[in-house]
Amino acid sequence: MDLRRGAASLEGTSPTLSELVRLCAHAGLEVHVAALPAGCLGAYEHERERILLARGLTPVEQRCVLAHELGHALLSHVGSSAADERAAERFAARLLIDPRALAEACRWARDDAELADELGVTIDIVRDYREHRGVRRAA
């Protein structure tokens, strides 16, 4: 499966961690949990066609970090720059957040933490989505 086509089919559907891992496998990307340097939650190794997730992440964090690293893979990033990081963050937010679910949660959620919990993502993903899609803050 082509990574671009597979990611496009999942965008905005709130894919599960299993669905993301399956997408990686179909695209020829290996996913491994590994001991990474402090502060590093994940990494995309272009030359090895693999994604590394830090040990000890919660399932929600794994899902969000995997989506972020998929963004790097899809965009063919080699190395890391601030612009690459922002692009991967935007990709992950678009992929993981169902806009209808977000709109519904915005009606009652008091803050970004409640939105993130309801949507099964990190607060950073909520903020990235809101920033790049112009979505208002939680009630």
Stretches with pLDDT under 50, minimum 5 residues = none
Biggest beta-sheet profile = 3 strands, mixed
Shape field: globular
Number of helices: 7
Beta strand count: 3
What is the H-and-E element order? Answer: HHEEEHHHHH
Beta-sheet strand percentage?
5-15%
Q: What would the average pLDDT be, to the nearest integer?
A: 91
Class based on secondary structure composition and strand pairing: mainly alpha
Helix fraction by DSSP (H/I, runs of at least 4): 40-55%
What are the defining features of this structure?
7 helices; 139 residues; mainly alpha; 3-stranded mixed beta sheet; globular; 3 strands
Short description:
The protein is mostly helical and 139 residues long. It is built from seven helices and three strands.
Describe it.
The chain has 7 helices and 3 strands; from the N terminus they run ααβββααααα. It is mainly alpha-helical. Strand 2 and strand 3 form a beta hairpin. The mean pLDDT is 91.
Helix-strand blueprint:
Elements: H1 3-10, H2 17-26, E1 30-34, E2 42-45, E3 50-54, H3 59-74, H4 82-96, H5 99-106, H6 112-119, H7 123-133
Parallel strand pairs: 1-3
Antiparallel strand pairs: 2-3
Helix pairs in contact: 2-3, 3-4, 4-7, 5-6, 6-7
